[in-house]
Design goal:
Strand content: over 45%
Largest sheet: 7 strands, mixed
Helix content: under 10%
Low-confidence stretches: none
Structural class: mainly beta
Number of helices: 0
Number of strands: 11
Order of helices and strands: EEEEEEEEEEE
Mean pLDDT: 95
Distance between the termini: 40 Å
Oligomer: single chain
Radius of gyration: 14 Å
Length: 120
Amino acid sequence: QVQLVESGGGLVQPGGSLRLSCAASGSIFSGYAMAWYRQAPGKQRELVAHITRGGTTNYADSAKGRFTISRDNAKNTVYLQMNSLKPEDTAVYYCNAKQWSGGTILEDYWGQGTQVTVSS
């Protein structure tokens, strides 16, 4: 079992920055691929950024060049640095942990979400 707790959300003006954190507990953090998703009102949850166990990252087109995902295995924490925020980034942001084996998801965990609101 993995417990995920997000923090760092809030209200920010367009063009501003926020850093989200997701603290994991309960299992071996380094064994999980980690990701950030978001869900805006009336929309489906979408992948924002992903980082593998080895540190390889990929991003949604909307996040490329503005967001950076990173992980600190010693602190059992994954981060999402968000710069140049836009009103369309407004959403609840969720942390996700997955454990894979041969293309099959063995374990899949979600945090409770943290609200990010970009508005002037």
